[in-house]
Amino acid sequence: MKVAIIGAGYMGRLHAEKFARLAGVELVGVADADRARAEEVATKVGCPALPDWRQAMSRAQAAVVAVPTERHLEVAGACLDAGLHVLVEKPLAVNLEEADRLLAAGARNGVVLQVGHVERYNAAFGALAARMAKPLYIEAERLSGFKQRGADVDVVLDLMIHDLDLALSLAKAPVSEVSACGFRVLTEEIDIANARIEFADGCVASLSASRVSQAPVRKLRVFQTDVYVSANLQAGKLRYVRQAGGAIEETEEVHAGGDALSAQAAAFVAAVARQKPVEVSGEHGRRALELALEVGRLVRERMQRSTA
Q1: For the whole model, what pTM was predicted?
Q2: Residue 55 CB: number of other CB atoms within 10 A?
Q3: Are 38 and 8 in contact (CB under 8 A)?
Q4: Do residues 214 and 301 share a domain?
Q5: Rounded to 10 degrees, what is the CA torsion of 122, 154, 143, 300?
Q6: Phi, psi (5° rounding) for residue 3?
Q7: Structural domain containing residue 162
Protein backbone atom coordinates (compact mmCIF):
# COMPACT_ATOMS: atom_id res chain seq x y z
CA MET A 1 0.00 0.00 0.00
CA LYS A 2 1.47 3.33 -1.09
CA VAL A 3 1.11 5.96 1.65
CA ALA A 4 2.00 9.67 1.73
CA ILE A 5 2.49 11.76 4.86
CA ILE A 6 1.16 15.31 4.55
CA GLY A 7 2.42 17.47 7.39
CA ALA A 8 5.83 16.79 8.92
CA GLY A 9 5.40 18.45 12.29
CA TYR A 10 5.42 16.60 15.60
CA MET A 11 2.59 14.18 14.77
CA GLY A 12 3.46 13.86 11.08
CA ARG A 13 7.00 12.82 12.01
CA LEU A 14 5.67 10.13 14.35
CA HIS A 15 3.19 8.87 11.74
CA ALA A 16 5.98 8.64 9.16
CA GLU A 17 8.11 6.54 11.52
CA LYS A 18 5.23 4.17 12.35
CA PHE A 19 4.07 3.65 8.76
CA ALA A 20 7.65 3.17 7.55
CA ARG A 21 7.94 0.13 9.83
CA LEU A 22 4.68 -1.53 8.73
CA ALA A 23 4.92 -4.60 6.53
CA GLY A 24 3.15 -4.16 3.21
CA VAL A 25 3.42 -0.35 3.29
CA GLU A 26 5.59 1.85 1.07
CA LEU A 27 6.00 5.49 1.98
CA VAL A 28 5.97 7.39 -1.32
CA GLY A 29 6.54 10.88 0.03
CA VAL A 30 6.50 13.39 2.87
CA ALA A 31 5.17 16.90 2.28
CA ASP A 32 5.24 19.98 4.47
CA ALA A 33 5.03 23.75 4.02
CA ASP A 34 8.52 23.80 5.55
CA ARG A 35 10.57 22.05 2.84
CA ALA A 36 13.57 21.51 5.14
CA ARG A 37 11.37 19.78 7.70
CA ALA A 38 9.85 17.55 5.02
CA GLU A 39 13.32 16.61 3.76
CA GLU A 40 14.53 15.81 7.27
CA VAL A 41 11.63 13.45 7.95
CA ALA A 42 11.74 11.93 4.46
CA THR A 43 15.48 11.20 4.78
CA LYS A 44 14.94 9.55 8.14
CA VAL A 45 12.24 7.17 6.81
CA GLY A 46 13.82 6.65 3.38
CA CYS A 47 11.36 8.21 0.97
CA PRO A 48 11.19 11.37 -1.20
CA ALA A 49 10.29 14.81 0.12
CA LEU A 50 7.45 16.21 -1.96
CA PRO A 51 7.72 19.90 -2.93
CA ASP A 52 3.91 20.13 -3.05
CA TRP A 53 1.45 18.03 -1.03
CA ARG A 54 -0.79 17.74 -4.10
CA GLN A 55 1.79 15.44 -5.69
CA ALA A 56 0.73 12.83 -3.15
CA MET A 57 -2.57 12.41 -4.95
CA SER A 58 -0.92 10.92 -8.04
CA ARG A 59 1.60 8.78 -6.14
CA ALA A 60 -0.32 7.33 -3.21
CA GLN A 61 -3.29 5.14 -2.46
CA ALA A 62 -3.64 6.61 1.02
CA ALA A 63 -2.60 9.71 2.92
CA VAL A 64 -1.97 10.60 6.53
CA VAL A 65 -3.04 14.22 7.02
CA ALA A 66 -1.28 15.89 9.95
CA VAL A 67 -1.58 19.56 8.97
CA PRO A 68 -3.14 22.23 11.23
CA THR A 69 -6.86 21.67 11.86
CA GLU A 70 -7.95 24.67 9.82
CA ARG A 71 -6.45 23.02 6.72
CA HIS A 72 -8.09 19.60 7.18
CA LEU A 73 -10.95 20.36 4.81
CA GLU A 74 -8.64 21.63 2.08
CA VAL A 75 -6.03 18.86 2.29
CA ALA A 76 -8.01 15.82 3.47
CA GLY A 77 -10.93 16.83 1.26
CA ALA A 78 -8.73 16.99 -1.85
CA CYS A 79 -7.20 13.60 -1.04
CA LEU A 80 -10.62 12.00 -0.56
CA ASP A 81 -11.89 13.49 -3.81
CA ALA A 82 -8.80 12.10 -5.57
CA GLY A 83 -9.78 8.63 -4.36
CA LEU A 84 -7.21 8.35 -1.56
CA HIS A 85 -8.00 6.71 1.76
CA VAL A 86 -7.30 9.18 4.56
CA LEU A 87 -6.19 9.02 8.18
CA VAL A 88 -6.63 12.57 9.48
CA GLU A 89 -5.44 13.85 12.84
CA LYS A 90 -7.98 14.87 15.46
CA PRO A 91 -10.00 17.00 15.65
CA LEU A 92 -11.62 16.05 12.36
CA ALA A 93 -12.33 19.66 11.39
CA VAL A 94 -12.79 23.14 12.82
CA ASN A 95 -16.59 22.93 12.73
CA LEU A 96 -19.42 20.53 11.92
CA GLU A 97 -20.05 21.96 8.46
CA GLU A 98 -16.50 21.13 7.39
CA ALA A 99 -16.69 17.76 9.13
CA ASP A 100 -19.84 16.92 7.18
CA ARG A 101 -18.15 17.90 3.93
CA LEU A 102 -15.28 15.50 4.70
CA LEU A 103 -17.70 12.68 5.55
CA ALA A 104 -19.60 13.32 2.32
CA ALA A 105 -16.36 13.25 0.30
CA GLY A 106 -15.38 9.92 1.83
CA ALA A 107 -18.80 8.39 1.16
CA ARG A 108 -18.99 9.84 -2.36
CA ASN A 109 -15.67 8.32 -3.34
CA GLY A 110 -16.03 5.04 -1.46
CA VAL A 111 -12.82 5.46 0.52
CA VAL A 112 -11.82 5.07 4.16
CA LEU A 113 -11.89 8.16 6.36
CA GLN A 114 -10.33 7.42 9.75
CA VAL A 115 -9.75 9.98 12.52
CA GLY A 116 -6.65 9.93 14.73
CA HIS A 117 -8.22 9.43 18.15
CA VAL A 118 -5.18 7.41 19.13
CA GLU A 119 -6.28 6.67 22.73
CA ARG A 120 -8.76 4.15 21.33
CA TYR A 121 -5.70 2.03 20.53
CA ASN A 122 -4.23 2.31 24.01
CA ALA A 123 -3.89 -1.30 25.20
CA ALA A 124 -5.07 -0.45 28.73
CA PHE A 125 -8.17 1.28 27.41
CA GLY A 126 -8.94 -1.67 25.15
CA ALA A 127 -8.78 -4.07 28.10
CA LEU A 128 -10.95 -1.77 30.21
CA ALA A 129 -13.55 -1.29 27.49
CA ALA A 130 -13.85 -5.05 27.01
CA ARG A 131 -14.90 -5.40 30.68
CA MET A 132 -17.43 -2.55 30.73
CA ALA A 133 -20.95 -3.66 29.78
CA LYS A 134 -22.97 -0.70 31.12
CA PRO A 135 -20.99 2.10 32.77
CA LEU A 136 -22.77 4.26 35.31
CA TYR A 137 -20.08 6.87 35.93
CA ILE A 138 -16.95 7.83 33.97
CA GLU A 139 -14.27 10.14 35.33
CA ALA A 140 -11.28 11.30 33.29
CA GLU A 141 -8.35 13.58 34.03
CA ARG A 142 -5.93 14.65 31.31
CA LEU A 143 -3.22 17.14 32.21
CA SER A 144 -0.12 18.32 30.39
CA GLY A 145 2.45 21.09 30.52
CA PHE A 146 2.09 23.96 28.08
CA LYS A 147 3.39 23.33 24.56
CA GLN A 148 3.18 25.72 21.64
CA ARG A 149 2.21 22.71 19.53
CA GLY A 150 -1.58 22.45 19.67
CA ALA A 151 -2.05 26.02 20.88
CA ASP A 152 -3.93 26.84 17.66
CA VAL A 153 -7.00 25.27 19.31
CA ASP A 154 -8.35 25.37 22.87
CA VAL A 155 -7.69 22.68 25.47
CA VAL A 156 -11.05 21.05 24.73
CA LEU A 157 -10.12 20.39 21.09
CA ASP A 158 -6.48 19.73 21.93
CA LEU A 159 -6.74 17.38 24.94
CA MET A 160 -10.26 16.83 26.28
CA ILE A 161 -11.52 15.59 22.92
CA HIS A 162 -9.57 12.36 23.55
CA ASP A 163 -11.64 11.64 26.66
CA LEU A 164 -14.87 12.85 25.08
CA ASP A 165 -14.30 10.21 22.40
CA LEU A 166 -13.50 7.54 25.01
CA ALA A 167 -16.60 8.43 27.05
CA LEU A 168 -18.79 8.28 23.95
CA SER A 169 -17.39 4.89 23.01
CA LEU A 170 -17.95 3.53 26.54
CA ALA A 171 -21.43 4.96 27.18
CA LYS A 172 -22.89 3.88 23.83
CA ALA A 173 -25.90 6.16 24.39
CA PRO A 174 -26.94 9.59 23.10
CA VAL A 175 -25.87 12.66 25.06
CA SER A 176 -28.79 14.23 26.90
CA GLU A 177 -27.20 17.14 28.78
CA VAL A 178 -23.87 18.99 28.92
CA SER A 179 -22.50 21.51 31.41
CA ALA A 180 -19.00 22.94 31.50
CA CYS A 181 -16.66 25.54 32.96
CA GLY A 182 -13.12 26.63 32.20
CA PHE A 183 -10.53 29.39 32.18
CA ARG A 184 -7.81 31.10 30.16
CA VAL A 185 -4.37 31.05 31.77
CA LEU A 186 -1.47 31.32 29.30
CA THR A 187 -3.19 31.80 25.96
CA GLU A 188 -6.16 33.64 24.49
CA GLU A 189 -8.00 30.32 24.34
CA ILE A 190 -9.36 27.98 27.04
CA ASP A 191 -6.45 26.35 28.89
CA ILE A 192 -8.35 24.54 31.67
CA ALA A 193 -11.78 22.95 31.30
CA ASN A 194 -14.17 20.66 33.14
CA ALA A 195 -17.25 19.08 31.58
CA ARG A 196 -20.14 17.01 32.90
CA ILE A 197 -21.80 14.86 30.25
CA GLU A 198 -25.10 13.09 30.94
CA PHE A 199 -26.24 10.29 28.65
CA ALA A 200 -29.76 9.14 27.84
CA ASP A 201 -29.27 5.82 29.65
CA GLY A 202 -28.33 7.54 32.93
CA CYS A 203 -24.55 7.29 32.62
CA VAL A 204 -22.64 10.42 33.68
CA ALA A 205 -19.12 11.45 32.67
CA SER A 206 -17.00 14.06 34.45
CA LEU A 207 -13.96 15.12 32.42
CA SER A 208 -11.13 17.51 33.29
CA ALA A 209 -8.36 18.79 31.03
CA SER A 210 -5.49 21.22 31.52
CA ARG A 211 -2.52 22.20 29.39
CA VAL A 212 -0.87 24.33 32.07
CA SER A 213 0.00 21.61 34.60
CA GLN A 214 3.44 20.65 35.85
CA ALA A 215 3.20 16.89 35.35
CA PRO A 216 1.39 14.90 32.65
CA VAL A 217 -1.60 12.83 33.80
CA ARG A 218 -3.87 10.51 31.80
CA LYS A 219 -6.28 8.83 34.20
CA LEU A 220 -9.63 7.21 33.59
CA ARG A 221 -12.04 5.70 36.13
CA VAL A 222 -15.16 3.77 35.18
CA PHE A 223 -17.85 2.46 37.52
CA GLN A 224 -20.65 -0.01 36.85
CA THR A 225 -22.82 -2.10 39.18
CA ASP A 226 -20.38 -5.00 39.58
CA VAL A 227 -16.93 -3.42 39.24
CA TYR A 228 -14.88 -0.24 39.46
CA VAL A 229 -11.88 0.16 37.15
CA SER A 230 -9.10 2.71 37.55
CA ALA A 231 -6.79 3.18 34.57
CA ASN A 232 -3.47 4.95 34.29
CA LEU A 233 -3.42 5.25 30.50
CA GLN A 234 0.09 6.67 30.52
CA ALA A 235 1.60 3.72 32.41
CA GLY A 236 -0.75 1.10 30.97
CA LYS A 237 -2.00 0.01 34.41
CA LEU A 238 -5.50 -1.11 35.42
CA ARG A 239 -6.88 -1.73 38.90
CA TYR A 240 -10.18 -3.59 39.28
CA VAL A 241 -12.20 -3.39 42.49
CA ARG A 242 -15.21 -5.65 43.05
CA GLN A 243 -17.14 -7.42 45.79
CA ALA A 244 -16.59 -11.17 46.03
CA GLY A 245 -18.16 -13.30 48.77
CA GLY A 246 -18.80 -10.30 50.96
CA ALA A 247 -15.22 -9.04 50.73
CA ILE A 248 -13.64 -6.35 48.57
CA GLU A 249 -11.33 -7.87 45.99
CA GLU A 250 -8.70 -5.87 44.12
CA THR A 251 -6.72 -7.05 41.11
CA GLU A 252 -4.23 -5.28 38.89
CA GLU A 253 -3.22 -5.65 35.27
CA VAL A 254 -0.33 -4.11 33.37
CA HIS A 255 -0.56 -3.39 29.66
CA ALA A 256 2.74 -1.55 29.35
CA GLY A 257 4.90 -1.48 26.28
CA GLY A 258 2.07 -1.05 23.82
CA ASP A 259 2.39 1.37 20.93
CA ALA A 260 -1.00 2.98 20.30
CA LEU A 261 0.19 4.98 17.29
CA SER A 262 1.55 1.86 15.58
CA ALA A 263 -1.68 0.02 16.38
CA GLN A 264 -3.65 2.88 14.86
CA ALA A 265 -1.52 2.78 11.69
CA ALA A 266 -1.99 -0.99 11.39
CA ALA A 267 -5.75 -0.60 11.90
CA PHE A 268 -5.88 1.97 9.11
CA VAL A 269 -4.03 -0.33 6.72
CA ALA A 270 -6.35 -3.20 7.63
CA ALA A 271 -9.41 -1.00 7.04
CA VAL A 272 -8.11 0.11 3.64
CA ALA A 273 -7.48 -3.54 2.72
CA ARG A 274 -11.06 -4.31 3.84
CA GLN A 275 -9.74 -6.83 6.33
CA LYS A 276 -11.41 -5.03 9.25
CA PRO A 277 -14.01 -2.29 9.68
CA VAL A 278 -12.89 1.26 10.39
CA GLU A 279 -12.59 1.40 14.18
CA VAL A 280 -12.54 5.20 14.52
CA SER A 281 -14.46 6.45 11.52
CA GLY A 282 -15.28 9.91 10.30
CA GLU A 283 -18.64 9.56 12.04
CA HIS A 284 -16.87 8.88 15.36
CA GLY A 285 -14.66 11.90 14.77
CA ARG A 286 -17.68 14.08 14.01
CA ARG A 287 -19.47 12.92 17.15
CA ALA A 288 -16.48 13.77 19.35
CA LEU A 289 -16.06 17.12 17.57
CA GLU A 290 -19.73 18.01 18.06
CA LEU A 291 -19.47 17.36 21.79
CA ALA A 292 -16.15 19.21 22.08
CA LEU A 293 -17.58 22.26 20.31
CA GLU A 294 -20.56 22.27 22.66
CA VAL A 295 -18.28 22.08 25.71
CA GLY A 296 -16.17 24.93 24.31
CA ARG A 297 -19.27 27.03 23.66
CA LEU A 298 -20.55 26.53 27.20
CA VAL A 299 -17.15 27.40 28.69
CA ARG A 300 -16.93 30.63 26.69
CA GLU A 301 -20.45 31.67 27.64
CA ARG A 302 -19.65 31.10 31.28
CA MET A 303 -16.40 33.08 31.04
CA GLN A 304 -18.24 35.97 29.40
CA ARG A 305 -20.83 36.05 32.18
CA SER A 306 -18.10 36.07 34.83
CA THR A 307 -16.34 39.08 33.26
CA ALA A 308 -19.51 41.07 32.46
Answers
A1: 0.94
A2: 15
A3: yes
A4: yes
A5: -120
A6: -125, 140
A7: 119-258+291-307
